[in-house]
Amino acid sequence: MSHKIRKFTLKGTVPVAALLIATTTLGAADITYVSGATGAAVENFATLVAPWEELTGHTVTLVPMPSSTTDQFGQYRLWLAAGNGDVDLYQTDVIWAPQLADHFVDLSQAAGDLVKRHFPSIIESQTVDGHLVALPIYTDAPALYYRRDLLEKYGAAVPTTWEDLTTTAQMIQDAERADGQSDLWGFVWQGNAYEGLTCNALEWVKSSGGGQIIEADGTISINNPAAVAALDLAAQWPGTISPEGVLAYQEEEARGVWQTGNAVFMRNWPYAYGLGNGADSAVKGLFGVAPLPTGQGHDMSAATLGGWNVAVSKYSKHQDAAISLAVYLASEEAQKNRALNETSLPTIMSLYEDAEIAERQPIIPLWKDVFLQAVPRPSAPVRQDYNEVSTLFFSAVHSVLSGDEDAANALAELELDLEDMLED
């Protein structure tokens, strides 16, 4: 099989060094790309990949996955274990690299100088045993969304502690309901038993001085008084300032309540900012964002480090084209597209100084304050066992939030379960 190799440069961007497009004489390939479906990502995907398709002659078929990252990971692991050659590229969570590395192509050489333009810590998170197994396409850190108009109406400040948030949310919720707004809730977040709850609860615990579940040196730290107090406070929210149904909420359910104007505060990721200012949003122009609160007198906020990457399967039948697409999606062109159309946070440092992004999505430069307080989940110290660690954690937290267990007993049992699992 012969190949024609040519470099390409996307108009209006810095040239992507070492980005090679391979086109076979047997015709163009149809590349299969699997990705979670959250917000407007699916709707925007065709526009995102159109420049690459036009330049290469290849096409891309997007296969949407469940929004739940827990469900996504389970399906990915099944496909990869079976050596599935029908999927060419996987959109991967920042925590999955150590667990899935053996199934992905090393992209170090293909990415070339592009790697130097990304935040080094993010590149490092996708490098396993010296192999760059996925390229960053956007990073993520959640924030506290607040109704500016309602805070001004009641003379309330943006809460900087979880305790203040609880009090302020209850006060405004009660006052608005007394004024006829019967559907208004104080605070919506992600309480379903899945990876999103791990993120939320890690933030409560870490920002209260309770550690990161398992520390970088492998020490299991979750069973401590600060963590117990953080969960005790959160367990008061369902049925008071949060609907009881919050225990089944993921990102989109929380956004749905918020965007219809039925919440004072919301914890969510950057993608919800642009959608919240969309033409069909009841809260357009009425809200702001701030770093997540702290707890128990602790002075550091904590926002779970998220982010998404693209990996090429070793079992792909179209590896050259798949690698080319991966490098394009990590490029400035594609990252700027996502920043403008989905308020996704770039991983390329220079884009935070981009004038067009600052004008159209001014929240992105401001999000650096949130990003600077981001904390990682304990995927590095436990590597391939992370999914099981997270499942044990969010299951224990959910049992506390639902009233099935008290926090002290749940975390003591969790500590024993983690010790047993990691010893095995």
Please tally the β strands and state the result: 15
**Percent of residues in beta strands:** 15-25%
Strand order in the sheet with the most strands: 4-3-5-14-8
Tell me the helix content: 40-55%
Low-confidence stretches: 1-26
Shape: globular
| SSE-based structural type | alpha/beta
Q: How would you characterize the largest beta sheet?
A: 5 strands, mixed
Number of helices: 19
The average pLDDT score comes to: 91
- The Cα radius of gyration reads 22 Å
Distance between the termini: 48 Å
Description:
This protein is globular. With 424 residues, the protein is α/β, with parallel strands linked by helices. Strand 3, helix 1 and strand 4 (59-65) form a beta-alpha-beta unit. The strands form 5 sheets. It has a 5-stranded mixed sheet. It has a 4-stranded mixed sheet with strand order 10-11-9-12, sandwiched between helices. A two-stranded antiparallel ribbon has the order 1-2. The protein has 19 helices and 15 strands. The protein has helices at 41-56, 69-81, 97-100, 108-111, 120-125, 148-153, 162-178, 195-206, 225-234, 251-259, 271-276, 319-329, 332-342, 355-360, 363-366, 368-371, 379-382, 386-401, 407-423; strands at 3-7, 20-24, 30-36, 59-65, 89-93, 127-128, 131-132, 135-140, 143-147, 185-188, 263-268, 287-290, 303-304, 306-312, 374-375. Helix 8 (195-206) packs across helix 9 (225-234), helix 8 crosses helix 18 (386-401) and helix 18 runs antiparallel to helix 19 (407-423). The termini are far apart.
